[in-house]
UniProtKB/TrEMBL annotation:
Keywords: Cell inner membrane, Cell membrane, Membrane, Transmembrane, Transmembrane helix, Transport. This is Microcin C transport system permease protein. It comes from Primorskyibacter flagellatus. The chain crosses the membrane at residues 9-30, 134-155, 167-193, 223-246, 283-308, 328-354. SUPFAM superfamilies: MetI-like. InterPro entries: MetI-like, MetI-like_sf.
Amino acid sequence: MGAYIFRRLLLIIPTLFGIMVMNFALVQFVPGGPIEQIIAQIEGGGDVFGGFSGAGGSPASELETQGAGGDSQYAGARGLPPEFIEKLEKEFGFDKPPLERFIGMMWNYMRLDFGESYFRSISVMDLVIEKMPVSISLGLWSTLIAYIVSIPLGIRKAVKDGSAFDTWTSGAIIVAYAIPGFLFAILLLVLFAGGSYWQIFPLRGLVSDNWESLSWPSRIADYFWHITLPVLASTISAFATLTLLTKNSFLDEIKKHYVMTARAKGLSERAVLYGHVFRNAMLIVIAGFPTVFIGVFFSGSLIIETIFSLDGLGRLGFEAAVARDYPVIFGTLFVFGLMGLLVGILSDLMYVFVDPRIDFEKREG
C-alpha cells in the first residue's frame, strides 16, 4: 500500500501542473482583465466590489490627482495618462510575457506564497481563511445531515423494498430532488424568516452582531439558529442520490449467496443485515465521504450564500472571476486542487479501512 500511496503522491505534481497550465492559458483569451476593470471603474464612477472605491494609495485614487491625456491600448481608456496604464501593468505584472508570469506564479505557489488580491489589499490565504467559516458550516453540516438521514432511510427502503413505505418515500425524495435549492431557500425565508408568515430564524449572517459578548452556550445556540435555514436549503437535494445509492447497494448485497448462507445458519435478520451486509453495502457510501464533503465545501453554493447574505467561498469565487482578480482565482485553484487530489488518496485509504480485502497495488499489477 505504501508504494501505491507514493505513486499517487508523485502523480499529484503533473496533475496539478496541468490544471494550472490549462486555466492560465484559458484566462489569456478572456477579455476584460483587471486593468480593464479598473479603467471601467474609474471612468464609470463605480467600484469593483468595494476594492477601489476611493481607497487611499491605490492606483485608482492616485489617478484622480493626475491630468488627462495620451493614448492607451485598452478599450475605454480614452483620456487616461499612458504612464498610469504602464504603472498598472507593472504593478500587476502584465509588463512581463505570459510564460514568465506563469513560471513566477508557480515558483511562488511552491513556496506557499499566493500573493495579494488586486482589489482588496489582503493576502489570498487570509481572504480564504476569512470566508472559510461559512463554507465549512454549509459543507460540514449539510454532508453530515445528508448521511445521518439518508443511510438509515436507504437501509429501511431496501428492507421494505416494494412496500408502501418504499413507494411514498421514493415519491417524496424525487419531489425534494426536483425542487431547486434556491427556490426552497426562498420558500424557507418566506415561511420562517419574516417574509410573510413567521419570524423564527434570522434573515442574514452566520452569527448575530453581539456574538462576541454572548456566553459560550449562547454563542453555540446563536450559531445554529443562524445556519438552520441555509443548511436545510443546501441539503434538500442531497438526500435523493445518497438514499437511493444506499438502498441499491443493500439490495445488491442482500441477494448474494453469503446472505442466504447466514440466514440458513439461523442468524437473526438484524445480525445478517448489520453483521454481514452493512460493511459490504456501505463501502461506496462511507468511503466516498471525504470526496462528498470536499465537493460540497469547495463548490460553495453561490445562490444560497447570496439569498441568506452569507459571505463564503462561493461568493468569493464569483466576485474574483467577475473582477478578474487573478491572484484569488489562481491561488484558490491551486490550494483547492491540491487538497482535492489529496482527498482522492484519502478516499482510497477509506476503501481499505472499510474493507481490508481491497488491495490497490495488486489491482494495478
